[in-house]
Amino acid sequence: MKGHFHHSSIENGHPSIGHLNFGPNLTSLxxxxxxxxxxxxxxxxxxxxxxxxxxxxxxxxxxxxxxxEYKILTEFGAWMNAxxxxxxxxxxxxxxxxxxxxxxxxxxxxxxARIFWLYLKRKELFEQxxxxxxxxxxxxxxxxxxxxxxxxxLIGSLMVLGSMWVSAQGKSLSHxxxxxxxxxxxxxxxxxxxEKLDFNKIxxxxxxxxxIWGSYPTCGCTCSSTVGAYRDxxxxxxFLQKEESSCDWRKSISSNKDLAEILPDSFDxxxxxxxxxxxxxxxxxxxxxxxxxxFGTDTKFTLNLIPFGILKPEENSWITFNYSEHNxxxxxxxxxxxxxxxxxxxxxxxxxDATLIHVLNKDYDSINPNDKKYIEQxxxxxxxxxxxxxxxxxxxxxxxxxxxxxxxxxxxxxSVMMKWNKEKGRFEIKSKSNRPKTVSFKEFILESEFWxxxx
Length: 455
What we know:
Elements: H1 26-32, H2 45-52, H3 67-84, H4 93-101, H5 111-129, H6 143-169, H7 173-180, H8 182-188, E1 200-204, E2 209-216, E3 221-231, E4 237-245, E5 250-255, H9 259-262, E6 286-291, E7 299-305, E8 319-320, E9 322-323, H10 341-349, H11 354-360, H12 369-379, H13 391-409, E10 415-421, E11 426-433, H14 441-447
Parallel strand pairs: 6-8
Antiparallel strand pairs: 1-2, 2-3, 3-4, 4-5, 5-9, 6-7, 7-10, 10-11
Helix pairs in contact: 2-3, 3-5, 10-12
């Protein structure tokens, strides 16, 4: 099974709902919803994110949606409804296309638009005919509903046949790998007509390697999932998996075993540095990335900076195995991300490099006058995102970055190559590489990635 595999990461574009300006005018909004008499479009980050947190009543959709589709509707329905009825202004072309899709007479092919289109049509039927939430009372004979019933039957039949086959054959290695990537797969599958797959794949699962990746609507979201199997001397498999999802800024590595059991003993930041002392931090600074090989078992692990603004509490550790946007319903000790990209823009615009030091030291009177004017207007004032309220708060945000910079500057290596020990059933360090690039604090800020909200 599996050598060195160069991991191809998912598309890394993250369109910010707060900074894209294309969208229809008020006339267009009324065309999307002719009943809208008064519309004050909203297009701030806070407005869009507020609707993302709301739920929509859609229990009457259970009979005609799969569990995955129903979950999508409950999670994004309120936000999609606000786009549809004109409460929120579309800020991306995909959002505009979503609104236009609601005007069609047939279900759209795009997954999210199709789900919401079905919601609107069934809601209309529900209100007109007082439908109750039972499959046997779905009587509408329009062609599109016939197709839906037929497709549900075909999908159900295939699932039954698949389950029968698995029961007969047992869970093969291939089956176990496909089970592990199903969270990403359900987002990417073409469930509209069953003609094709909507995702890319490298399926060498019989030999212990599987990777799937692709994009899904409505905001150009992407996900990928890669899993490899490592066999021990007893014939058992240890699975190592990497998952990425762009719209919720999620990255993770996981295993069917505790990662501490398969990584080298006492694996921590000191694997990457000879420095006896490091700056303390209550948040993780690095994500432990991995390149899972298709051939062989030598596996490369690399420290990558967590995008600034995403705060992942880690007790006594600078390294985390996963991070994502704020998700209080699914994550304990979750902290809302901070939109601090104004700090990066400030670093681009200031003319005096000493300005950063003056802000860090709260020596505000020594800031270059031109730089101070820019900060007051574009970081704290009317031309800012409104997320940083004062110079003291700016210092607080800048200290988060300085802390990360100080730890980064003490690293001797960024990557370790590990070999798989079949007898012990765990990884061992084989070599170290990738010395950190020497940069100034300002260069560090300019070259780092910052969290921005994605629609």
